[in-house]
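User: Could you check the structure of this?
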Amino acid sequence: MIGRRSISLEPREVPLGGVRAMNVLRTLPNKDLPTVGAWCFLDRFGPGPVKMRVEPHPHIGLQTVTWPLVGDVRHRDSLDSDVTLTRGQLNLMTAGHGISHSEYSLGEEEIPLDALQLWVVLPESARDGAGGFEQHTSLPTVALPASSGPDATATVVLGEFAGTRSPATVHTPIVGAEIALPAGSRVALPLDQAWEHAIVLVEGDVAVDDLSLVRNEMLYLGDSRAQVSVSSTEGALIFVLGGEPFEEDLVMWWNFAGRTHDEIAQARADWETPDAATARFGHVVSHGAERIPAPELPNVRLKPRRRHI
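Assistant: Sure, the predicted structure tokens are below.
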């Protein structure tokens, strides 16, 4: 068991630049905390006007979770998916052995855009499987009784929360839930004591067990908690991440989640070799030759990430 924690993790600004032409706030992976459950990556892009053009790029060994807050995103992938995602809907793409996709904002002008982009690392049993894509336009919600003020509402994005399960495919015990706290509300969030959890403040004001968070801050809670108290004065939107601690080695680099340096190097080589890229990652529907080239590998061998908290 990890035990109870109350550790604040602040995001860092990461310039994506180039064809992506925008900055993001990245909370996971953190140098001291590579994963929360199987969640291994959390970016927030926005809010702000942006013309997003994320050209075709590859993934292995993970699932991408796109959760829009403001604006619409067009997703295209090498499985011939071509869909538009809007607020309250979920795009879930499973990379498996290899997949490629692109993400565009709609239109040719800058638009207001704000979203969470998360990754879930796949366990050994699923990480080399076939790729997949699913869009869920309706997700289950559950009312959370308040001890004071109005009740809160949870949308179960991935996994299970408060006895309610998302229809999205998962491969490890996990939870991803958005919770809307009305002004003046205090609510006890039910947690699985065997899982570790974290809470991210997306908008508004929130106190977690009376510890106030600032916007985009993540509070890592550890495990061994049956519940945690959250309250808001003016109203808040928070996101709960959690799950069974991920015990397998994890080597992450660029868009790849693997177990060894050699595995990552092979995926990079495949993406940079046209025939191998087509065979392993496919071709993104409605695109031509445009793509994001892989960066150079570092001059040291990649090693598994370890937690230090």
